[in-house]
């Protein structure tokens, strides 16, 4: 009996230890990270969040060269239609400023656009391991959803719906 309890306890600890932690705040280095806007002007991620204070924010981390990102664009547009009051931040991991701007135009992405470049500080600060990556920030600036990779993910829909 004790052996079974020990095995179950070990299994539980291992499972919980491997589960990805859902962050609720942005790391200092991510907030202080300087990105650029479409006019190639510097702006910190903290300034972007401050500008959108009091709004539900859907963040789409993407790149114009990313086939999964491009395939997901119709789902993002459907999300925008369903939740037009949310703010949509597109954070690009494109390698060049020109490719990024062409990608925005080609895919007719409506929202706020910023670029951090490939392997930028922001990506590291959110443990970016795949794009597209979607996050949701509530009206208080708290991360309500840390990570999903599909714009029609049930978790994302439920959270945006609850934050209306």
Account of the 3D structure:
A hairpin with a 5-residue loop joins β6 (133-137) and β7. The chain starts with a helix and ends with a helix. It has helices at 2-18, 28-32, 45-51, 67-82, 97-107, 121-125, 154-162, and strands spanning 34-37, 42-44, 57-62, 87-92, 112-115, 133-137, 143-148. Helices cover 43% and strands 21% of the residues. A seven-stranded mixed sheet has the order 2-1-5-4-3-6-7. It is built from seven helices and seven strands. The protein has 164 residues and is an alpha/beta fold.
Quick gist of this model?
This protein has 164 residues and is an alpha/beta fold.
Which features does this protein show?
7 helices, single chain, globular, seven-stranded mixed sheet, 43% helix, 7 strands, 164 residues, alpha/beta
How are the strands of the largest sheet arranged?
A: 2-1-5-4-3-6-7
Give helix % range: 40-55%
Would you count the extended β strands for me?
Answer: 7
Biggest sheet character: 7 strands, mixed
Question: Residue-averaged pLDDT, rounded?
Answer: 89
Q: Report the C-alpha radius of gyration, rounded.
A: 18 Å
- What's the tally of helices? 7
The H-and-E topology, N to C, reads as: HHEEHEHEHEHEEH
Tell me, what's the shape?
Answer: globular
Low-confidence stretches: 4-19
Distance between the termini: 50 Å
Strand content: 15-25%
Kindly name the structural category: alpha/beta
Summarize the SSE layout with pairings.
Blueprint lengths: L1 H17 L9 H5 L1 E4 L4 E3 H7 L5 E6 L4 H16 L4 E6 L4 H11 L4 E4 L5 H5 L7 E5 L5 E6 L5 H9 L2
